[in-house]
Each structure stands twice: as C-alpha cells, then as structure tokens.
Specification:
The chain has 300 residues and is of the alpha/beta class. 40% of the residues lie in helices and 19% in strands. About 5% of the residues have low confidence.
C-alpha cells in the first residue's frame, strides 16, 4: 500500500505489517465471548472455527452473499477509504477487493485471523497490493480521527468487552458525512440450531444451556449506535438453512469450544448433536434453521 494508507495510522508502530500490539489484560470474570485472551489464543487462533460456522450457510435458501448484500446497502462509489474493524478471515475485504479502488484496511485482534485474511487476499495479486491488514483492538483503534469514509463492524460487536467504546471509536475515525455499517443477528437467528445444542446439553445431564456466542444483537446494537450517531437505518435479511447432513451442525457446535467453560466432553457433544439432527432430517428431509441477520447503517 502507498503512503496514503500509512498516513491513516496514528503512529508508525501501528502501521500494516507490524504486530506488536500488547495483549489486553485478561479479565477472568469476563464472559467467554468477550474474553480477549480466549478469543485471540483459542477461538480465533486461526480461521478454522469461523470457517466451520460459515459452512452451514452453504445450505441457505435463498442463497445470500451477506458481504455483497451489506456492502450494497452503503452504495459505495468505489473511491472511499474503508476500514473493516474485526475483519476476521477477510470475507468483506475480499468482496471489496473485487471492484473497490479506494484504500481498504482490515483490522483484527487475532494475528491468526489476519494471517488467513492475507492468505485469502493473496489469491488475487491485485487485491493483495491494494488492501492492508493490521492487528488492533476495536476499543482503541490505531487510526487517526476523521481518517476514513466508511467503517465496517461486521459480526463482531458481541466479542468486544466494551461495545460502547468500540462504537465511539467507529464515530471518531469517520470523516464528517462518513458512514458505518454494523452487522448483527436477531434473537431468532439460528434458533433451531441453538435448540439442538440445548437438547444435547440436557441429554448429557449438564444442567445448563449451551453457551452460544453472546446476546448482543440488533436491538442492543441499534441502541448504542443511536446514542453515538443519532439516526440508525435497520435492514433485515431473511432466509433459512435447509441442512441435509448433520456434520456441518456438529462442526458448528464443536467450533464454539464450549468444553473450556462447561467441561463437556466434545465427543459426547458431537454424538448427541449428530443424533438429534439426523432424527430431524429423517422426519422432513432436512433440518430447517432460521437465518435472520441484520445490518445497521449510520452516518457521522
């Protein structure tokens, strides 16, 4: 990337290619899904767990490329400076790289995820030269105030210990008139899959519900964005998953690493989930799961 991208960062030590960001102090009382040590070192040490969860969307009807859908809501001209906060394995960076001419930056807490994002972008030589990635905490972004036209926070605010601080940071880095897009889930998203995992825990006699990724959803996100930005435009995408093979559901359940917080045996969990999903598939031909994400769009 050129000087124009480097100049967006607050100091040289935070520029793309550096990875010296100090680990955040571990809060042993933090919920699992906002425990930065767990997220960085275990859950997102690489993109394997995320890919396992993304795999269930191969069964989506109608098919929806959520990256293209969400980016389309922003009606980009193609010349904007865009930062993707919590870029993960680079799905949105890859979508942007196909046609966007402006500077694109991906930030993530996990070095493992950034390695996989770089690998995804490396498949397109032109994308690798036009997109920069760097390690960063969403609560303390290393970008200059007013340096970006568009900020993305996709599927990630439920991982931030202080979501309000992250939203303030999105506002800070945007230029006047800049826009932010935040993707979160509705309360009904994957409800049937959550039910299967709860049933598995009941069958295993654990006496607790399956610890799914946090409860920070569209209403909570809209409320925080409204406090910081004012008007929030909410867009919903409705679809369903028609899953004909238990294994993607098993993979999803195991990808959440719940043994760490519950002591459940992964093999026993896999067997229970597999049996229940197979039973449901045998009844109707597929396991139906609600997919109900949403995108919140704001302007600075």
């Amino acid at each position: 990337m050129g000087e124009s991208v480097v100049s967006l960062f607050m100091n040289e030590s935070a520029t793309p290619g550096r990875s010296e960001t100090a680990p955040a102090p571990r809060d042993r009382t933090a919920p699992l899904w906002t425990d930065q040590s767990f997220l960085r070192a275990e859950q997102y040490a690489d993109s394997g767990n995320l890919r396992a969860r993304q795999a269930i969307y191969d069964y989506q009807v109608p098919r929806l490329d959520i990256a293209d859908w969400a980016l389309g809501l922003l009606e980009l001209s193609g010349d904007e400076t865009v930062v993707d906060v919590g870029c993960g394995n680079g799905a949105y960076l890859s979508a942007l790289s196909r046609s966007h001419r402006g500077a694109v930056i991906g930030l993530d807490l996990s070095l493992g995820m950034l390695r996989d994002a770089r690998a995804t972008l490396a498949e397109d030589v032109s994308a690798a030269s036009r997109v920069a990635v760097a390690q960063a905490d969403a609560q303390r972004l290393p970008l200059r105030s007013g340096s970006c036209d568009v900020a993305l926070a996709m599927h990630m605010l439920y991982h931030v210990p202080d979501a309000r601080a992250a939203v303030r940071e999105l506002h800070r880095i945007l230029r006047p008139g800049g826009r932010a897009a935040v993707v979160l889930n509705s309360s009904g998203h994957l409800a049937e899959l959550r039910g299967v995992c709860d049933t598995a825990f009941e069958e295993l006699g654990l006496g607790l519900r399956f610890p799914f990724i946090g409860s920070f959803r569209i209403p909570e996100g809209a409320a925080l964005l409204s406090e910081e930005f004012g008007r929030v435009t909410e867009h919903r995408a409705g679809a369903e998953l028609r899953i004909t093979d238990p294994e993607p559901v098993v993979g999803y359940a195991l990808s959440l690493n719940v043994a760490r917080s519950t002591g459940v045996d992964p093999g026993a969990l896999a067997a229970e989930v597999r049996a229940e999903v197979r039973r449901l598939i045998d009844e109707t031909g597929y396991f139906r799961v609600t997919a109900a994400p949403g995108c919140l769009v704001v302007s600075s």
